[in-house]
Specification:
heterodimer, A: about 400 residues, alpha/beta, Rossmann fold, seven-stranded mixed sheet, five-stranded parallel sheet, 13 helices, B: about 350 residues, two-stranded antiparallel ribbon, about 70% helix, globular
Chain lengths: ~400, ~350
């Protein structure tokens, strides 16, 4: 019998089998005596794949907790779903996890658009959601969402504070990705500059798909700026730096916290990142910090996830998951959704490897603490401004 | 059995009583299916049906008229943005909004059809591809369209609020029935178009445009018409998609989506309406469901996890999904150039003559 004939005959039974597998789920509570089900979406493939490390970093924390016996005897059963940064896939993944696996809580979730697509669904279903991984301001006030990623307003503010108040630069320009990220950060930058009586020399937009930035750099060079604050994606930051070095434009670059993975940035700029001493905002502990908690995670990563690169997004995934773990521990043996909610609402001035977190019943806003790092000559992290709380009125 | 004795038999909607019977049974099954499905499955079905409408429309252009199109995500986007903006900014009720949005989409299809008169093959592919990309960027740049931040769909009210008639659809189930009715209408429309004068003109153009022109078919009219009709389908689908997802940004309608639409048509079977339905269903199911959960399929799943853990990087399984999707496409094209429709014909023949 030839292959075609065999495939023809097998077609019906094989399909019936696959479909029957698909229907075989019927769980609807988020936890039982054995396990607590937690999920996260994140781009593991596609153009945004480098940020997928966040979801895997969370896995490390949960694996570590499970290894130590779980939380009050319950293991954490953790699901990662690849959404390729595509909202329709995020929605499918989230519904799958909520409706079929009975997920109790979500951690993180990279990206503004994927998060916006599922926010109403998660809210309606009262699913605990600790920290969407974006600083965009478009998220509703949701009693079940606790935000952890710093607001882009605050990010702009800390960069401007460092440039204008710590380093005393007077000639500051701004180069930004032409979307809400760039716009939100700009408000923060201008608020800080205003109180120092400084005007932005120029604000120059970049399209997310642009790859030739020579005209933008020429305009920046013409302003003679001593410092340029950049809010853009890694690829463009690398191109911008390379172009400015090649045309002899000497300036201090200060970039977003999304670019504070120095080994990565140094790699894609072929060492320029370190040579130019680029500074970035940051909101976690330094990845090679010698603190007990960081050492514990680093050891765990070597043991439990030897293939992973110990990088910034990976540790950010740990930072995003810490508050949920604290809340589950505080909620006690007799677990319920309401208890976890109340535990999250009463986290006060607690710090893991991220910023100090305080949430109350009325405010689930992200922490307003950030730091500034500088890339040292060997690509190492130098902390030039430790945790600083932004006190400016952000309008949120 | 398939012999036609007169012309009218050829243009009947259902070729035989058997087909009519099974079609009715199939539709009836779709109407009662929600009784057995979870909310997650309803979402998946809604997505499948939206993709079916696009694929059936695209097939009129690619399969029946023989024009390549790589920009259908653009028309899909026009439908989605058009419907939502007409509802929120102008306060139009849902039904007029979606139909007007689809006509806007059809108008753009007509415009894009004009260069198609002079372009063929790869040149046409590039022209349509550029259109799809341009739409994505124009939307991303314009404040009215919500910029890159995207838009949130309003409450799905299919009544006319101005007259005090409100019929708000909130549940996944409600959306399922709404989209199902749209899908049935659009599929019947597609089958009918192919049986009219225009449909025959499309096929003639595909087979040989010079011969078609010689026998008196107006190429200008029918080529642009094929583009317009196909974009109309994509527009309707886009309008429904806006409410299935509830939120969308320009990146949702990227180049990959255009290619996926084309894949649905080719995998399903060029020139066959039933093939497009099957293709859209299979590809959507693979992309959104089976391949996402491949690690839980018995035996195969464990093997893959073990293999990935040993030899691949940390995202091995996720990347495997994309590879598997590609393999399915390649496999179908190699073994069955007529797509799933071709496979269906062979299965039918085999069982009809069983056991010989």
């Amino acid at each position: 019998m030839n292959i075609k004939k065999m495939l023809t005959i097998l077609f019906v039974p094989v399909f019936a089998m696959i479909f029957s597998i698909d229907l075989g789920y019927a769980r609807d509570v988020g936890f039982d005596d054995e396990e607590i089900r937690v999920g996260q979406w994140g781009p593991q493939t596609g153009p945004a794949a480098p940020w997928g490390a966040v979801a895997r970093g969370t896995k490390l924390l949960f694996d570590l907790i499970n290894e130590e016996g779980g939380i009050h005897g319950r293991k954490i059963n953790y699901f990662i779903r690849d959404d390729q940064y595509n909202p329709s896939q995020t929605m499918a993944a989230v519904r799958d996890l909520v409706d079929r696996r009975g997920v109790f809580a979500f951690v993180g979730g990279v990206g503004t658009a994927p998060g916006l697509a599922v926010q109403s669904f998660l809210r309606q279903n009262e699913i605990v959601w600790v920290g969407v991984c974006t600083g965009a301001r478009a998220f509703q006030n949701n009693p079940w969402l606790w935000q952890i990623w710093p607001d882009y307003f605050d990010e702009g503010a800390i960069l401007a504070i460092h440039a204008a108040e710590n380093l005393k630069f007077k000639k500051i320009a701004y180069m930004y990705q032409n979307d809400d990220w760039g716009a939100d950060a700009r408000v923060g930058i201008e608020a800080v500059l205003k109180r120092n009586n400084i005007k932005l020399l120029a604000a120059i937009p970049v399209e997310p798909t642009e790859r030739d930035l020579s005209s933008q750099i020429a305009r920046l060079q013409a302003t003679g700026a001593d410092a340029v604050i950049g809010i853009m994606a890694p690829t463009q930051a690398a191109i911008a730096l390379r172009t400015s070095v090649s045309v002899g434009f000497k300036t201090q670059w200060l970039h977003s916290y999304n670019l504070c993975d120095f080994p990565l940035m140094n790699h894609i700029t072929e060492g320029l990142w370190a040579r130019e001493g680029v500074m970035t905002a940051a909101f976690t502990d330094n990845i090679d910090a010698d603190t007990p908690i960081m050492n514990r995670y680093r050891e765990a990563a070597k043991r439990l996830a030897p293939k992973e690169r110990w990088g910034l997004f990976y540790t950010a995934g740990i930072a995003a998951a810490e508050p949920l773990v604290w809340a589950l521990q505080a909620a006690g043996k007799d677990l319920s959704k309401e208890k976890v909610r109340d535990a999250l609402n009463s986290i006060t001035k607690r710090q893991g490897i991220g910023p100090v977190i305080t949430w109350t019943k009325d405010s689930h806003l992200p922490p307003r603490q950030l730091r500034i790092w500088k890339c040292g000559p060997k690509g190492e992290t130098i902390v030039v401004q430790d945790w600083k709380t932004i006190t400016l009125e952000s309008g949120k | 059995m398939d012999m036609k004795r007169d012309y009218y038999e050829d243009i009947e909607l259902f070729k035989s009583g058997t087909i009519l019977f099974w079609s009715i049974l199939f539709v009836a099954a779709l109407f009662v299916a929600p009784l057995f499905l979870s909310n997650y499955h309803l979402y998946l079905f809604n997505l499948v049906m939206v993709h079916v409408i696009v694929a059936v429309g695209l097939n009129i252009l690619v399969g029946s008229t023989g024009q390549i199109a790589l920009g259908h995500a653009g028309f899909f986007a026009i439908g989605a943005y058009g419907t939502v903006l007409l509802m929120t900014k102008l306060g139009l009720p849902f039904f007029p909004a979606i139909v007007i949005a689809a006509f806007i989409s059809a108008f753009f299809g007509f415009i894009l059809g004009l260069p198609a008169l002079r372009l063929e093959g790869p040149y046409l592919a590039i022209a349509t591809l550029a259109f799809g990309l341009a739409i994505m960027h124009i939307i991303g740049h314009t404040e009215l369209f919500g910029g890159r931040q995207g838009l949130t769909a309003p409450v799905l009210n299919i009544g006319i609020s101005q007259w005090g008639l409100n019929w708000v659809i909130k549940t996944e189930l409600g959306k399922y029935y709404l989209i199902l009715i749209f899908t049935i209408i659009m599929v019947l429309l597609a089958i009918n178009i192919l049986k009219t004068r225009a449909g025959r003109a499309f096929v003639a153009i595909r087979d040989s445009d010079i011969a078609a022109e010689v026998i008196g078919i107006n190429l200008t009219m029918y080529k642009t018409l094929a583009f317009a009709v196909s974009s109309f389908f994509a527009g309707i689908a886009g309008g429904l998609f806006a409410f299935v997802l509830g939120f969308f940004d320009p990146f949702t309608f990227n180049l990959i989506l255009s290619i996926i639409f084309l894949v649905m048509v080719v995998v399903g079977g060029l020139g066959s309406v039933m093939g497009s339905i099957a293709g859209a269903t299979l590809i959507t199911y693979l992309m959104y469901d089976l391949l996402k959960n491949v690690d839980e399929v018995p035996i195969v799943g464990n093997l893959l996890v073990a293999f990935s853990g040993k030899f691949l990087t940390t995202t091995g399984i996720d990347n495997f999904n994309l590879v598997a999707l590609g393999l399915v496409m390649i496999g179908i094209i190699i073994f069955e150039p007529l797509g799933m429709f071709g496979a269906w014909i062979r299965i039918k023949k085999y069982w009809k003559t069983w056991p010989f």
